[in-house]
Amino acid sequence: MFGPFRASHVNSGGLLWKIPWKLSTTRKANARHRLKKVDAVIEAVRASGVQCAALERALELPKEHEMPARDKYTVFSPHARGYRKGIHKVPKWTRITQRTNPKGF
């Protein structure tokens, strides 16, 4: 019961995912590179002459060089202190677009 072989708590067991509290410089560079690649794809589709609603929505998004660092690396969160949290804490953050935030945040 009280020794080296005591039972552990249920919430302490299982796979432990450790998410760092801030993005490293390498992960920031990779995020910027990903944004630039998405911008290049959007521009290539626009140059090809294709017309669709998804392209119109994509053209309204800010480009990587137009975004402040705050929007590149953090997202709005109503539950976080300061209403911002690191983008790497969002599930599937490398696959979804998080370029726009509510006005004033």
TrEMBL record:
Location within or outside the cell: Mitochondrion
GO terms classed as biological process: mitochondrial translation
An example Gene Ontology CC term for this record: mitochondrial large ribosomal subunit
GO molecular function: structural constituent of ribosome
Pfam families given in the database record: L31 (PF09784)
Protein keywords: Mitochondrion, Ribonucleoprotein, Ribosomal protein
PANTHER family documented for this protein: 54S RIBOSOMAL PROTEIN L31, MITOCHONDRIAL, LARGE RIBOSOMAL SUBUNIT PROTEIN ML60
Assembly and interaction partners: Component of the mitochondrial large ribosomal subunit.
Record's protein name: Large ribosomal subunit protein mL60
Organism: Lentinula lateritia
Upper lineage: Eukaryota, Fungi, Dikarya, Basidiomycota, Agaricomycotina
